[in-house]
Amino acid sequence: MKGLPANSIGTIENSLAAATRKQYSTTYKLWWAFCSTNHIDPFRAEPNQAIKFLQEQLDLKPNTGYGTLNQHRSALALILDNLSCSGIVKRFMRGVFKMKPLTTKYRHIWDPKTVLNYIESLGPNSSLSLRQLTMKTVTLLALISGHRLQTLSLIRLENINQSPQSFEIWITDHIKTSRVGGEQPTLQVPFFQANPSLCAATTLKDYLKATQPLRKEEFLFITFRQPHRTASKDSISRWVKEVLKAAGVDMNVFAPHSTRHAVTSAAYKKGLSWDIIRRSAGWSQNSQVFAKFYNRPTQQHGYSLAPAILAVNN
Q1: Model confidence over 261-298: pLDDT tens digits?
Q2: 23-78 pLDDT tens trace
Q3: Can you tell me the distance from the alpha carbon of 78 to that of 44, in angstroms, rounded to the nearest whole number?
């Protein structure tokens, strides 16, 4: 309908992440039903018809927030050429924002020391089962890097470089923050000699040694049950959740991704510079995400969060 060559459709579809496609599919199911009921061509609808649809979603579900409505608007803008530049749609969305202002997910965040104390209590790595060692490794990497769990799930063995002082891990796969011309994240995992029980680098080294005979996969994390396949982001999320819960973090309030909130907030309060935090955790130089959504009250050296985070136990 847009006059594009048929063989370009797949390339254009690849501009959308899998998670975005899943979110948009929810909108399209609702939109198709709306258009069918109101005898509207779903690909040639006018802005006022799109507003009617958005208002209907708002009326049917009063708890619907601005983010959900904006997701619907974005999905429709992908198939309706005249929607993105419509002044009345922009005005409508401003009204929704005032009625349903964005709120932060957490008003406060848990103290990383709670989880570190639990990890320390597990004892030396040599005494841990593969299951315990796997969970300890992924949780420590989440805590000392501040990265998303998606990023940890994409660590490839070929991109892990060990030196006497640290591990350096390059992330080459596309992640949520990947941009054209942007910098891909590099995880710095220094050896923490002050407390070997909390040393993420030592734990990573022991995990690599323990899993070497088991692995046939190119990614770092594998399932601890046979046939030891590559661990998905959801599996890694479950592992972190289990550790946080065992440590006493209220998982009815916090999600596994809250590790990113907890460690970046704690590092900032310990005086680590914003530049180190944003580079380590993968935010751009001018990003305001940390200040708006991640820096929460809790109950430097080098390019890493590790010293500031792990030192809370000393």
Answers
A1: 888 888 878 777 767 777 676 666 555 555 454 555 55
A2: 999 999 999 999 999 999 999 999 999 999 999 999 998 888 888 999 999 999 99
A3: 12
In angstroms, the CA 12 to CA 173 distance is 19
- Yes or no: say if 191 and 252 are a contact pair by the CB < 8 Å rule: no
d(CA 310, CA 142): 12
Q: How confident is the model at residue 301 (pLDDT cuts 50, 70, 90)?
A: very low
Cross-strand bridge partners of residue 298: 109
Please report the DSSP string for the chain in residue order.
Answer: -----GGGHHHHHTTS-HHHHHHHHHHHHHHHHHHHHHT--TTS--HHHHHHHHHHHHHH-TT--HHHHHHHHHHHHHH-TTTTT-HHHHHHHHHHHHHS----S-SSB--HHHHHHHHHHT--GGGS-HHHHHHHHHHHHHHHH---HHHHHT-BGGGEEE-SSEEEEE--S--TT--TTPPPPEEEEE--TT-GGG-HHHHHHHHHHHHTTT--SSBS-B-SSTT-PBPPHHHHHHHHHHHHHHHT--TTT--TTHHHHHHHHHHHHTT--HHHHHHHHT--TT--HIIIII---B---SS-SHHHHHGGG-
Give me the pLDDT at residue 300, please: 42
More confident residue, 154 or 179: 154
* pLDDT at residue 229, rounded to an integer: 93
Q: Which residue has the tokens 């958005």?
A: 54
Q: What is the pLDDT, as a whole number, of residue 81?
A: 86
Q: If we measure between CA atoms, which residue out of 35, 37, 39, 33 comes closest to residue 80?
A: 35
The answer to whether 237 and 149 are in contact (CB under 8 A) is yes
Confidence of residue 124 (pLDDT cuts 50, 70, 90): very high
pLDDT at position 234 over 50: yes
β-bridge mates for residue 56, sequence order: none
